[in-house]
C-alpha cells in the first residue's frame, strides 16, 4: 500500500519541456553546441544541469562556471515561460484529492532551486508539498536513485511505499532503482517510450487514489 507521492517537476507538475528545450537551444547556440531531438530526449530531459554541462564541455565544471551557465540558461527559460506558466491538466484537482485523504507528497526535481522557486511560487502551490528536493541537494543526477532515496528519507517513509510521477526515461529509472512504483505521464515521451513505467497516463484527469492502490 502506498503512503506518499513524489512528483518530478519539469514535464510533470508543469508541461514545460518544450520551453526548456528552446532555452537549451538558445544557450547552446551562444556557446557553439548543437543538440538533436534524440539527444534532448536521452541526454537532457530528467538530468541535472551539472551533468548536462559536464557532458557538453567534456569535463567537470567549477562551481563558479556552473552558477554562471545555470543562471544564463534559467534566465532564458524564465523569460520564455513567464506568460505561459500553468499546472499540468488535472493536477490541482489531484492535489486536493491527495490532501483530502491526508496523503503527503513531495517534489524531487533535477532543476535547481531558483527555477523551482519560480515555478512553485508563481503557481502558488508550494504549500501543498511536505518536502521539496532540488538539484543542489544531490551529488548524482537521475537515473541514479539518490534524489528519490533522499526525498523518501525526508518524508520518513520507506521508498517502497512511495509512488513517483515522471515524464523522462532517466526519471523512471531513478525512481524504480529507489524501489518506488512509477507512473509515467506523456508530456515528453510517447506511451510506448514510457513502457518501463508501472502505469502510463496522458493527464492527471485519468488518475485517482484507487488507481494508485492497485499498483
Assign the CATH superfamily of the largest domain.
Answer: HAD superfamily/HAD-like
SS elements, strand count: 6
Distance between the termini: 8 Å
Radius of gyration: 16 Å
- Range of strand content: 5-15%
Could you give a quick summary of the protein structure above?
The protein is of the alpha/beta class and 215 residues long.
What would you say this structure looks like, in words?
- The longest helix is centred in the middle third of the chain and has 19 residues, at 63-81.
- The protein is globular.
- The protein has helices spanning 17-31, 37-44, 49-57, 63-81, 91-100, 113-122, 146-155, 169-177, 209-213; strands at 4-7, 105-108, 131-133, 162-166, 181-185, 199-201.
- The chain has nine helices and six strands.
- It has 215 residues and is of the alpha/beta class.
- It folds into two domains: 4-15 and 85-213, HAD superfamily/HAD-like (Rossmann fold); 17-81, DNA polymerase, domain 1, CATH 1.10.150.240.
- It has a six-stranded parallel β-sheet with strand order 3-2-1-4-5-6, covered by helices on one side.
- The mean pLDDT is 92.
- The chain starts with a strand and ends with a helix.
- Helix 1 packs across helix 4 (63-81).
What key phrases describe this protein's structure?
single chain; 215 residues; alpha/beta; Rossmann fold; DNA polymerase, domain 1; 2 domains; 6-stranded parallel sheet; 9 helices
Amino acid at each position: 500500500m502506498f503512503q506518499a507521492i513524489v512528483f518530478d517537476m519539469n514535464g510533470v507538475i508543469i508541461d514545460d519541456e518544450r520551453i526548456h528545450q528552446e532555452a537549451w537551444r538558445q544557450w547552446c547556440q551562444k556557446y557553439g553546441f548543437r543538440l538533436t531531438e534524440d539527444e534532448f530526449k536521452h541526454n537532457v530531459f530528467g538530468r541535472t544541469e551539472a551533468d548536462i554541462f559536464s557532458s557538453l564541455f567534456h569535463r567537470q565544471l567549477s562551481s563558479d562556471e556552473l552558477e554562471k551557465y545555470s543562471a544564463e540558461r534559467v534566465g532564458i527559460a524564465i523569460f520564455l515561460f513567464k506568460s505561459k506558466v500553468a499546472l499540468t491538466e488535472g493536477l490541482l484537482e489531484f492535489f486536493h484529492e491527495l490532501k483530502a485523504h491526508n496523503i503527503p507528497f513531495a517534489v524531487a526535481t533535477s532543476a535547481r532551486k531558483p527555477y523551482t522557486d519560480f515555478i512553485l511560487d508563481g503557481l502558488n502551490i508550494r504549500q501543498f508539498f511536505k518536502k521539496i528536493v532540488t538539484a543542489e541537494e544531490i551529488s548524482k543526477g537521475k537515473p541514479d536513485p539518490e534524489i528519490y532515496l533522499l526525498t523518501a528519507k525526508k518524508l520518513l517513509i520507506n521508498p517502497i511505499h512511495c509512488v513517483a510521477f515522471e515524464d523522462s526515461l532517466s526519471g523512471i529509472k531513478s525512481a524504480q532503482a529507489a524501489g518506488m512504483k512509477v507512473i509515467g505521464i506523456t508530456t515528453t515521451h510517447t506511451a510506448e517510450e514510457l513502457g518501463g513505467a508501472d502505469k502510463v497516463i496522458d493527464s492527471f484527469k485519468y488518475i485517482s487514489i484507487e488507481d494508485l492502490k492497485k499498483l
